[in-house]
């Protein structure tokens, strides 16, 4: 596998406002502007395409704010400085609501960014050495997802009934005596020189210059996958006309083609049109 230089992730920030649209009650934007939080890749890129190519015709004024972590976009949505966000899957959203007492709800699935296992030391996940160290995300949902991915290849076996919140305590068999290092998801690409393998979320892999289809030594399948990224709003915002316009665009044939052409299998559209 070719080695790539991993750039330092920017300091967490509420961040980078790609368009400023005057002042108003919605996160500093004009009242009719839909303010959407997103991680840079792929959510920010998909939204930027919509903003530049589709939004005006649909009568949608869109402002995009980029985030470098998974907590702040939901916190900002709950507090009202965002109208919607795009970056997370349903299991993560459900766990966030349970643990933080928030009332955020899904609107529509947008695309699937498959999680992958990456390594600078082996090219086959089944060739990990006895006692190898594998870095995994430290949040409940993504750690469970990472362990299920490893289990799908027989690297480990999970206890019967282990769900989306599986942890190392749910491992029933670990024939290679793997050691698991829990890290913040954004730190995982930078860990590749220090561990034998890392299970990395799609957006952070692509941010770091890794190609899921070329560099991952194991990649999630889209079949029966519950981890599609979704457009989310605070409860009560589902029927906002601006949100409905964006939901329609996210599942349009145009966005489906954009995702297929740009990511070439590294991100999978959910639209059938």
Describe this structure in words.
It comes from Streptomyces shaanxiensis. Belongs to the nlpA lipoprotein family. InterPro entries: Lipoprotein_NlpA. There is one protein chain. The protein has helices at 40-53, 55-58, 72-79, 90-100, 140-152, 202-207, 212-215, 241-250, 253-263; strands spanning 16-17, 33-39, 61-67, 84-89, 104-112, 116-118, 133-137, 157-158, 171-173, 179-183, 197-200, 218-219, 229-234, 268-269. It has 273 residues and is of the alpha/beta class. The radius of gyration is 19 Å and the shape is globular.
Total helices: the number is: 9
Distance between the termini: 35 Å
Which blocks of ≥5 consecutive residues have pLDDT under 50? 1-29
Structural class: alpha/beta
The major beta sheet can be summarized as:
7 strands, mixed
Q: What strand line-up does the widest sheet have? A: 1-3-2-4-13-5-14
Q: What is the approximate shape?
A: globular
Q: Report the C-alpha radius of gyration, rounded.
A: 19 Å
Find the count of extended strands (DSSP E, 2+ residues). Answer: 14
Q: Into which percentage range does the β-strand content fall? A: 15-25%
What's the SSE pattern?
Answer: EEHHEHEHEEEHEEEEHHEEHHE
Protein name: Lipoprotein
Membrane topology: Lipid-anchor
Signal peptide: 1-22
Keywords: Lipoprotein, Membrane, Palmitate, Signal
């Amino acid at each position: 596998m070719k080695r790539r230089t991993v750039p330092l992730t920017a300091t967490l920030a509420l961040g980078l406002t790609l368009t400023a649209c005057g002042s108003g009650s919605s996160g500093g934007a004009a009242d009719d502007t839909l303010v959407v939080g997103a991680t840079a890749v792929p959510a920010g890129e998909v939204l930027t395409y919509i903003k530049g190519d589709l939004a005006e015709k649909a009568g949608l004024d869109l402002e995009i704010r980029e985030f470098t972590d998974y907590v702040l976009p939901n916190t900002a949505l709950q507090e009202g400085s965002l109208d919607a966000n795009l970056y997370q899957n349903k299991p993560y959203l459900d766990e966030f609501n349970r643990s933080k007492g928030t009332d955020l709800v899904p609107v529509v699935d947008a695309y699937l960014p498959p999680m992958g296992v990456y390594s600078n030391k082996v090219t086959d996940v089944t060739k990990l050495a006895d006692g190898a160290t594998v870095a995994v995300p430290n949040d409940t949902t993504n750690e469970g997802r990472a362990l299920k991915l490893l289990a799908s290849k027989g690297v480990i076996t999970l206890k019967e009934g282990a769900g989306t919140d599986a942890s190392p305590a749910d491992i029933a068999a670990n024939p290679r005596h793997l050691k698991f290092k829990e890290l913040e998801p954004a730190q995982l690409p930078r860990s590749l020189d220090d561990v034998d393998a890392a299970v990395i979320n799609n957006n952070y892999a692509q941010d770091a210059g890794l190609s899921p289809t070329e560099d991952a030594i194991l990649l999630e399948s889209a079949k029966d996958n519950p981890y599609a990224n979704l457009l989310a709003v605070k409860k009560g915002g589902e029927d906002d006309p601006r949100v409905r316009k964006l939901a329609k665009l996210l599942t349009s044939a145009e966005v489906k083609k954009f995702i297929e052409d740009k990511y070439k299998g590294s991100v999978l559209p959910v639209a059938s049109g």
